[in-house]
From TrEMBL:
Coiled coil location: none
GO biological process: formaldehyde catabolic process
Name this polypeptide is given: Alcohol dehydrogenase-like C-terminal domain-containing protein
Lineage: Eukaryota, Viridiplantae, Streptophyta, Embryophyta, Tracheophyta
InterPro entries recorded: ADH-like_C, GroES-like_sf, NAD(P)-bd_dom_sf
Organism, as annotated: Escallonia rubra
Length: 144
């Protein structure tokens, strides 16, 4: 769904680390690794799961605790890369109208990302769901 080909549940990795499991699944490392949580330890794991020589790690989460990301410079010289992506690199003024039109034309399926809908009066419920990690995207209806 949404382009994901495989995933690993870290709680199911009891005898091996997540990185070892991913390296085995991909015969050496994933070409692309994405970190979406905002923890330096997970960023490090994503980097370590990427393929030596050309693996790309994309950091989407924001590290809020001030922990540094430790990367061996030798791995960068050999070809691995780490990059960040705020809003997927989209430019709001030019890209949002195009994406909105694609959605309206049913060329872009976004409905699967919506996990909850609440009335404006229940906006605090939306924040509670987000803080509890129970909501992916919540629609807040202003007119209901």
């Amino acid at each position: 769904m949404f382009g994901v080909t495989d995933y690993v549940n870290p709680t199911s990795c009891v005898e091996k680390s997540v990185c070892e499991v991913i390296r085995e699944m991909t015969d050496g490392g994933a070409d692309y690794c994405f970190e979406c949580i905002g923890l330096a330890s997970v960023m490090q794991d994503a980097f370590n799961c990427s393929r030596p020589a050309w693996g790309k790690t994309v950091i989407l989460g924001v590290e809020m605790h001030g922990s540094p990301l430790l990367v061996n410079p030798y791995e960068l010289v050999k070809g691995r890369t780490v990059t960040g992506s705020m809003f997927g690199g989209a430019k709001a003024k030019s890209d949002v109208p195009v994406l909105a039109q694609k959605y309206l034309n049913k060329e872009l399926c976004l409905d699967g990302f919506i996990s909850h809908e609440v009335c404006f009066e229940d906006i605090n419920k939306a924040f509670d769901l987000l803080n509890q990690g129970k909501s992916l995207r919540c629609i807040i209806w202003m007119d209901k």
